Amino acid sequence: MNQRIGYARVSTQDQHFDLQRDALLQAGCGVIYEDTASGKNAMRPELEQCLKALRSGDTLVVWRLDRLGHSLPDLVQVVSDLERSGIGFESLTEKIETVSAAGKLVFHVFAALAEFERSLIRERTHAGLAAVRARGRSGGRKPKLGEKQVREIKALLRDPDIRVADVARRYGVSRTTLYKHVGVIAPRQWDMA
What we know:
Blueprint: E1 4-10, H1 18-26, E2 31-36, H2 45-53, E3 59-62, H3 72-84, E4 88-91, E5 96-97, H4 101-134, H5 147-157, H6 164-171, H7 175-182
InterPro entries: Homeodomain-like_sf (IPR009057), Recombinase_CS (IPR006118), Resolv_N (IPR006119), Resolvase-like_N_sf (IPR036162), Resolvase_HTH_dom (IPR006120), SSR_resolvase (IPR050639)
Keywords: DNA integration, DNA invertase, DNA recombination, DNA-binding
GO molecular function: DNA binding; DNA strand exchange activity
């Protein structure tokens, strides 16, 4: 027997599932999985359980598209995986579903737009890096420590009474950053405390 299974997500503990739950129940969902997780958070344990529970012929129902995916490419990936498994998808607010031919067409237009967006981002990133390299710089973050600071730190660390942790605190960086900029420093017994 084909089931309509609902999935609801709120971002914080302060938010409530009531609106989504009511809409999903009204849409005929007998089971509803609920996650409290930021949209950017990839860890959504209830969604994982929901996806495992779905069988060919079932339909996954969400209140709104943004409840399922944390980005358009992520949403497209989830729905494509469902489609390959013979599972339908329906978003109540946007009135999008992948059970009918027309619904599949609309969703595939979304998928094409997501792929286009990824290509544009990739092109802009490559163009930006090329422009930076043409000016003699490399991409990425600026180093946390300048050359003068590195020289000062090396001079300080020659003194066996000065702890690496104290120098790191003085320059506002971690010990790992010091090791990275100054080179490998043999651990001194009192630095281990």
